[in-house]
Design brief:
By secondary structure, the protein is mainly beta. It has one domain: Thrombin, subunit H (Beta Barrel), CATH 2.40.10. The protein has one helix and seven strands; from the N terminus they run βββββββα.
C-alpha cells in the first residue's frame, strides 16, 4: 500500500470567502486590480489578468457596491501562478496570487477584523 502524503497547513489564520465585487488594488493609483478569492488576518488570495506577478509593496481592499475601503496595507507576494491556459499567444493569462500582510498599523488591523466579521461569507 502506498502511504498517503499529509497536507500540512502553513497558514496561521483562517481564510474567509468574500462576496463578488470584492477587489484588491495594487500599485500607485491601483494600476493593477484583481478580484479577491479569500481573505484572513494574515493575507489574501486574488485573481487578476496579466503576466507580471505583483511586487511587494502596499495594496488596497475595497468593495464595489458597499462602503468599505482599507488602504495602504503592506504585503509580500507568497505565490503567483497561471490558472488558465492560453488558447492563443495573444491572449493575456488569468493568474492567481497569494499575499501575506506585513506590519499593519493598529487601525488597519481593526478595519480588517471589521471586514472579516461583516463582509465575508464564511470560512473558505
Amino acid at each position: 500500500m502506498i502511504p498517503k502524503k499529509e497536507i500540512v497547513e502553513k497558514r496561521q489564520h483562517k481564510r474567509f470567502q468574500v462576496p463578488k465585487g470584492t477587489f484588491v488594488g495594487l500599485g500607485p493609483h491601483d494600476t493593477k486590480v484583481g478580484q479577491i478569492i479569500d481573505v484572513g488576518m494574515g493575507g489574501l488570495a486574488f485573481r487578476y489578468v496579466g503576466s507580471e506577478e505583483p511586487s511587494n509593496g502596499e495594496l488596497d481592499i475595497f468593495l464595489n457596491e458597499r462602503d468599505f475601503y482599507l488602504g495602504r496595507v503592506p504585503f509580500r507576494t507568497v505565490t503567483d501562478f497561471e490558472v488558465s491556459s492560453r488558447r492563443d499567444s495573444s491572449a493575456t493569462a488569468m493568474r492567481r496570487s497569494g499575499v501575506q500582510f506585513r506590519e499593519m498599523k493598529s487601525n488597519q488591523i481593526s478595519q480588517l477584523e471589521y471586514f472579516i466579521q461583516n463582509h465575508t461569507l464564511g470560512e473558505a
